[in-house]
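We were asked to recover a plausible sequence for a given structure. The inputs and outputs are reproduced exactly as logged, with field labels preserved.

PROBLEM: sequence recovery
POSITIONS: 155
GIVEN STRUCTURE:
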C-alpha cells in the first residue's frame, strides 16, 4: 500500500530519494539534507544560465519534486545570466547553498551534474551543454564517464 494513497506522489518521492542518494554518494556524504542543498543550488545556477526553452525542456524531464526545487524562486527576467566564467557559476552555487559551505562549489557542481546526466536523456544533456559557455560546460562529465540507467520504471 502506498504511503500517501496517491501513487504519483509516492513515485516522485521515491525518485527524489534516488536523486538525493546519488548526490550524497557522489559527494561522499551521509547527510541527505546536505545533498538536498547541493542539488538545489546547482539546479538553480544551471537554470539561471540557460535560455528559456532549455529551462523548460530540462524541467520537463525532472521528477515532480526535483522540478519544484528547480523552479523554486525562479524569475525569468534577465535570464540567462551573462556570467560566462566557471568561478562565477561556482560563486552562485556557494551563495545559493544557503549555509556555511563545507565543500568546494565546483566539486558540488561536478557531482550534481553527474547525477543529472545519469537521469536526464543524453539528447537533452547535449542540448544543454551546447547553450552553456565553454567554462561552465567543462563542469559536465565527459560522455563516457556517466553510466546510463534505463529510463523505464522507478529504481
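RECOVERED SEQUENCE:
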Amino acid at each position: 500500500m502506498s504511503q500517501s494513497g496517491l501513487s504519483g506522489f509516492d513515485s516522485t518521492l521515491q525518485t527524489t530519494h534516488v536523486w538525493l542518494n546519488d548526490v550524497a554518494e557522489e559527494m561522499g556524504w551521509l547527510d541527505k539534507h546536505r545533498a538536498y542543498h547541493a542539488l538545489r543550488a546547482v539546479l538553480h545556477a544551471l537554470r539561471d544560465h540557460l535560455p528559456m526553452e532549455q529551462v523548460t525542456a530540462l524541467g520537463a524531464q525532472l521528477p515532480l519534486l526535483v522540478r519544484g526545487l528547480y523552479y523554486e524562486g525562479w524569475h525569468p527576467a534577465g535570464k540567462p545570466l551573462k556570467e560566462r566564467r566557471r568561478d562565477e557559476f561556482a560563486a552562485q552555487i556557494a551563495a545559493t547553498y544557503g549555509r556555511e559551505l563545507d565543500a568546494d562549489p565546483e566539486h558540488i557542481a561536478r557531482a550534481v551534474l553527474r547525477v543529472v546526466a545519469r537521469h536526464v536523456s543524453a539528447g537533452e544533456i547535449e542540448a544543454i551543454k551546447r547553450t552553456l559557455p565553454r567554462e561552465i560546460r567543462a563542469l559536465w562529465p565527459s560522455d563516457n564517464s556517466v553510466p546510463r540507467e534505463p529510463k523505464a520504471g522507478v529504481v
